[in-house]
Amino acid sequence: AQTVTQSQPEMSVQEAETVTLSCTYDTSESDYYLFWYKQPPSRQMILVIRQEAYKQQNATENRFSVNFQKAAKSFSLKISDSQLGDAAMYFCAYKDIRDDKIIFGKGTRLHILP
Amino acid sequence: GAVVSQHPSRVICKSGTSVKIECRSLDFQATTMFWYRQFPKQSLMLMATSNEGSKATYEQGVEKDKFLINHASLTLSTLTVTSAHPEDSSFYICSAVSYGYTFGSGTRLTVV
């Protein structure tokens, strides 16, 4: 069974600095999708970034970028120029191409220090 | 973009009663919707997959007679918590599959 592991329950970063959230996953599949979701205090789940496993190029969305290491099954999220609005729970997630289900990691709570 | 409306956002009910939560896709058709439960400071736990026109598929350990799911149309799935107990108090979130995944804003259920 596929699993998603986020080893950092909480992290803090100074405003305007860069922070990297870690995620590893386990799967025997070769084709799948990986996601980072943000859940702010409102608890609305917001898609931050998405990566297709067949693409070697790392996905980027403005200040958010990933480091996708397929062989190592690692999918970290880098947030540049951290802003107070980035404070939230961040969930790493996996989806097999054959299934609509998303498997979530346990999350990392990110604090932004002013 | 795709929007999923979830209602109510908060509900308080008495033990032994039932409560219905609605999840509606506003501008797209969703043949598949998912229902999650989230305990405080924890991740989303998938409860069931709701399929339009067929029975829901429940995850292991989820009581299908307690958590009734109906997906009667391409835009609406409902979760009914039957004979609610205080331990059913939680945050429930739905999501719909469209081009990607769109989540509802969640429902905080408190059973007193």
Q: Based on CA inertia axes, which overall geometry of chain A fits?
A: globular
- Measured as a percent range, the helix fraction of chain A is under 10%
Tell me roughly what share of residues is in helical segments of chain B.
under 10%
Largest pleated sheet of chain A: 6 strands, mixed
Taken in chain order, the helices and strands of chain A follow as EEEEEEEEEEEE
Task: Tell me the distance between the termini of chain B.
Answer: 37 Å
Mean pLDDT of chain A: 95
In short:
The complex is a heterodimer of chains A (114) and B (112). Chain A is mainly β and 114 residues long.
Topology:
The complex is a heterodimer of chains A (114) and B (112).
Chain A: E1 3-5, E2 10-14, E3 19-21, E4 24-26, E5 32-39, E6 46-52, E7 60-61, E8 64-69, E9 74-79, E10 88-96, E11 103-104, E12 108-113
Chain B: E1 4-7, E2 10-13, E3 19-25, E4 32-38, E5 44-51, E6 57-58, E7 67-73, E8 76-81, E9 90-97, E10 101-103, E11 107-111
Parallel strand pairs in B: 2-11
Antiparallel strand pairs in B: 1-3, 3-8, 4-5, 4-9, 5-6, 7-8, 9-10, 9-11
Polypeptide structure, described:
- The complex is a heterodimer of chains A (114) and B (112).
- By secondary structure, chain A is mostly beta strands.
- Helix content of chain A is 0%, strand content 53%.
- Chain A is built from no helices and twelve strands.
- In chain A, strand 10 and strand 11 (103-104) form a beta hairpin.
- Chain A starts with a strand and ends with a strand.
- Chain B is 0% helix and 54% strand.
- In chain B, strands 2, 4, 5, 6, 9, 10 and 11 form a seven-stranded mixed beta sheet that branches. A four-stranded antiparallel beta sheet of chain B has the order 1-3-8-7, with no helix packed on it.
- In chain B, a hairpin with a 5-residue loop joins strand 5 (44-51) and strand 6.
- Chain B is globular.
- The N and C termini of chain B lie far apart (37 Å).
